[in-house]
Amino acid sequence: MKKIRLTGLLVLLLALMLSVGWAHANTPEPEITIRQEGDKTIEEYRINGRLYAIKVIPARGEPYYLVDSEGDGELDRQERGRLLIPSWILFRW
C-alpha cells in the first residue's frame, strides 16, 4: 500500500514539474523600449506587440506607471505604493 502511495505521489510530482516547466517555456518575454522625452525617461513594455505598461521616470520626483489594467487599451496611472492586483484573461471568446 505504501508503494502505491509513493508511486502515485511521484507521478503527481513529475506531472506538476512538467506543467510548470511547460508554462514557463511558453510565457512570452516582454519587449522593452527605452527613450528620452525632455527631462523624462520613458520605458514602454509590450508583449506580442501590444503595449501593456509605461514607466515614466522624471528627472525629479518619483517614477510612476501607466498600466492597461482592464485590457482595453486605456492606460491608468499607478502611483508607487498603490497595489495593482493582477487579473488574467483565461478565455476570450
What would you note in describing this structure?
The chain is elongated. The protein starts with a helix and ends in a 15-residue tail after the last strand. A five-stranded antiparallel β-sheet has the order 1-2-3-4-5, with no helix packed on it. Helices cover 26% and strands 33% of the residues. It has a single domain (2-78), classed as Single Sheet (S-adenosyl-L-methionine-dependent methyltransferases). The model has no long low-confidence stretch (mean pLDDT 76). With 93 residues, the protein is of the alpha+beta class.
In total, the number of domains comes to 1
CATH topology: S-adenosyl-L-methionine-dependent methyltransferases
Q: How many extended strands?
A: 5
Per CATH, the class reads: Mainly Beta
CATH superfamily caption: Protein of unknown function DUF2782
Output the radius of gyration: 20 Å
Instruction: State which percent range the strand residues make up.
Output: 25-35%
Low-confidence stretches: none
**Structural class, from secondary structure content?**
alpha+beta
CATH structural architecture: Single Sheet
Enumerate how many helices there are, as a single number.
1
- End-to-end separation: 46 Å
What letter string, H or E per element, gives the SSE order? HEEEEE
Shape: elongated
Mean pLDDT: 76
What are the SSEs and their pairings?
Layout: H1 2-25, E1 31-37, E2 40-47, E3 50-58, E4 64-67, E5 76-78
Antiparallel strand pairs: 1-2, 2-3, 3-4, 4-5
